[in-house]
Amino acid sequence: MASAVELPPSLRRVLQSAERVVVLTGAGISAESGVPTFRDAQTGLWSNYRAEDLATPAAFLARPRLVWDWYVFRRSLTERASPNQGHLALARLAELFADFTLLTQNVDGLHQRAGQPEVIELHGNLYETRCFDEGRVVTGVLDDGSSPPRCPDCGGLLRPAVVWFGESLPAAALAKAERAARASQVFFSIGTSSLVQPAAGLAGLAKGQGALLIEINPTATPLTPHADHVFSGPAGQVLPQLVQQIEAFRG
Ligand code: BJW
Hints:
The chain is of the alpha/beta class. Helix content is 34%, strand content 17%. The chain has nine helices and nine strands. Helix 5 (85-94) runs parallel beside helix 9 and helix 7 (171-183) packs parallel to helix 8 (202-208). The structure holds ligand BJW. Residues 26-28, 31-32, 37-40, 44, 55, 105, 107, 123, 162-168, 191-193, 195-198, 216-219, 221, 234-236 line the site of ligand BJW.
């Protein structure tokens, strides 16, 4: 069990009157559900596989079966996982603020399964499939036995509807994220290495417009020196304690 977490008085004062709160999550929020992160040494997905071999359009075109099967494996990990105390605490936090926005880089669907009312997915979703050639989202043909399956309309390759390196983020989701970050009074960055753009830049947008910046992560990141408050611990242990204290004056 991590040591007891206390809301600092200055943060408590801001949270007492804040209306617009934004949370950005990364792979670390799902680590305690048993879903591996990307860049953590030993356990991160990239410590066993090279990103450029798997998470780019070029990699998919070169080795579609390998990439497709990797995502089948990834889905099998998240299907077995359950939302943890961190996901559940964030769903509760959403109820405490008039204007709450949850942005996630994760593709695992665990926030939704924790009951989060609205989730803005910046890097897509493991459970959707798109036609590689035409971009159209295709439903109902996820694992038809072929690897990868073919688009029922044009016969082209289907791919997971996630965002690979070099690809644009979904325009509507990114626009909403940037708007919410700019308008936020408090911005939480939770369980992300803050290395991958443009998601990593959202905290800076928020802070540039005067938001208080809070980071929750057991390890320092490039964002850490810019954060107003850092809770250095696992999200599944820090968040329930923080949310319980916020609930005491906002619930
Ligand atoms: C815990 C914990 C616990 C552990 N509790 N915490 C500007 C400058 C330089 C480069 C670029 C730039 N703009 C764009 C780029 C290129 C590129 C990029 O950012 N590269 C950098 C790596 C240098 N970005 C892109 O290509 C993006 N597209 C784009 O910008 O389009 C426009 C454009 C195109 C071309 C050129 C220029 C512009 C797309 C990025 C797509 C990222 N895709 C992936 C894969 C998704 C599909 C899949 O899941 O397979 O998204 S990569 C991977 O990284 C995944 C994640 O969402 C993303 C972020 O990772 P995250 O979540 O931060 O995980 P980790 O593992 O890095 O960190 C986990 C953290 O948790 C750690 O800090 C731990 O300490 C912590 N932790 N346990 C709390 N219990």
